[in-house]
Structure formats: C-alpha cells, structure tokens
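Hi F.,

I've been meaning to write this up properly since the lab meeting, where we talked about keeping a consistent format for the predictions we share between groups. The idea is simple: the sequence comes first, exactly as it goes in, then the structure tokens exactly as they come out, then a line or two of notes. No screenshots and no reformatting. I'm using this chain as the first example so we have something concrete to point to.
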Amino acid sequence: MLYNIVMESVTNWPQIVAGKDQEIAELKALVKFYEEQFRLNKHRQFGASSEKSEYDQLSIFNEADATADANVPEPELIEIERHYRKRTRLTTDKLPENLPIEVVEHDLPTDEQICPECGGDLHVMGRETRRELVIIPAQVKIREHIRKVYACRDCEKDECGVPILKAPIAEPVIKGSFASPEAIAHIMTQKFVMGSPLYRQEQDWKRNGIMLSRQTMSNWLIKATEDWLEPIYDMLRESLCYRNVLHADETTLQVLREPGKTAQSKSYMWLYRTSGDTDAPIVLYEYQPDRKTKRPADFLRDFKGYLHTDGYDVYHKLPEHVIIVGCWAHARRKFDEALKALPEKDREGSNAFLGKRYSILTFCIL
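Output, unedited:
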C-alpha cells in the first residue's frame, strides 16, 4: 500500500510542480499589481495633481528652453563677475484708468493760511495725491413709466369719432409685474455667478428696506428664462449643430426635491461646445435626469460631423451621422497612471513611457 502511494506521488510530481509554479506566478503577478496600485494611490494622495513629469517628451520642440540652466557657468578661462537682480513683489492689483475720478481737494481754512513765523500769507507750493477705490453698493430706485395719450379737440367738438393716439413704449420684461430687466439681471448674476441663493438675497433686500420674497424672485427667474433666454438658447443650439466638429461631456449633479427621485440620487449636466477651429465659440449646458443614449442623441439630432468625447459607451451608440473621435488627453492619462505605477528604475523605456511619449507627439502634430 505504501509503495503504491509513493509511486503515485512520484508519477504525479511534474504536474504538482507545474501547478505550484503556476500558482506562484499568479501570486507574483497579483503582488506586482497591488504594488502598482499602492504607488499610484500614494501619488494621488501625496503627489502633484498635474500629469506633467520629467518623462514628457514635449522638450523635442522646446529643447533649448527645457535644458537651459542659468546657474551653470560658461566654460570661459576667465572668471565672470556675478551680479544679482533686485526682486520686486509682483501684484495683480491695479486701478483701471477708465474709471470716473472724483476729485476731493483739502484746503486749510482761510484764517489758517497765515505763516506761523512772520504772519505773511501762505501760497500753494505743491500738492500730495492719494487715490482710493470707492465702491457704491447697488442703487435701488423706482422707474415710473408715464405714457401720454393724445386726442383731437376738433373731433371732440364735432361729436364725431375721436381718434386716440398713445406714445410708443417698450413692453415690460414680464407682463403684470414690477420687475425690470436690471433687477432680473442682478438677481441672476448674484445667484448663478456669485453663488448667492435667493434666501440670502431676500435677507439683503430686507436690510435695505425692500420686502422682496424669494418666491417672487423665483417666479421672475423662471418667467424671464422661458420668455427671453430659451429662444436664445435654441438659436445657439441650432448654430452649434451646424458646425463640423464638436466636443461633449457630462458630469454628475445633485438636485433637491426632484419629482420621482431622492435627494441623494444622481442627475447629470451635459455639456456641448464648439472646437478650437472657430472664432465664435459656443458652450451649452443641458440638464438631464439620467445618462442614457437618448440624451445626446436628441440634442445632436441635427448634427453631422465629428464628436470629440471620452470613452463613455453611450457616445458610441449615437447615429451614424455622428462620428466619434477619441480624446488624446484621456489616452495620455492612462499611460501617465501606468508610468507612475511602475518603480522609478523601470519607468524610462517602458511601454507606458513610450505610450505617453507618442500620445503627446500625436496631440501636438494634430
């Protein structure tokens, strides 16, 4: 019995060894993968977010700038005297020259324009000038439109039909409302550009003695958007889809109190824009509750040309008249991550190194 067991083990030994070798190879590959992920995550957490590195090959085009070192002395036989340049603090603060200037002159009172030594009259021998930036908060006023109505005196005397003429006047931005274009533009700018929600604006109006509720402001924004901004948006979309090359992308967005969805669920803001081949760039955003193919398909239904996107599968399901072209920045990013995942000694000359190099070259040539 023991002999049979030993002989069976000896016979199956090559298969056992081969199985163990394969298991060891798989474990080594797994350890290598974990090491790469560890290095990459370490770089993401502690390293610079820029994808530029010493391995970038853009220096092919700017080799002189890339290799120049002002600290390396020239190989002269005589010693060159060193000199130092005084550094000044750089600032971006600058008062525009085209702003209106209010001049405030400061004089001595007439009874003090007397010399304290001899009692003679003082004269102006010079002036000291100091400039200040004056900010005046938003001015609020009521604009009252008075429209004159005209009638004919002679027709009134003859008791015949009296023609009535009215002075021309522009239609209000919102019928039946006291909103003005300036007020709506101010509220929109504060909310969408400065990030001030309507409840804060309501408090700010109240501090200035104006009782303007957030409900009224919301109504103004929605109505003005429907009447004035949506037609402009539609015209821009028509012009956008007339181009030959476009870019598209989407990002997540959280919307509160959306019908049929929880506050934690994801919604999406889709972005479409013209390429760099135009002098009149157009950038349009479109909110959608999901990330389905029908969203870009509907927006780009009139577009025929090249669409520059990332690798999201939805774009590749668009109709045939939309030709998808890849993004070199996204391709380069994967090579950059692969390069950072390698040990430093193995980076130069690796496939990741070559891939990043040629993706940059292709991008520059295009």
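Notes:
The beta strands are 149-151, 164-166, 245-253, 267-274, 283-288, 305-308, 322-325.
DSSP finds nine helices and seven strands in the chain.

If this format works for you, I'll send the rest the same way.

G.
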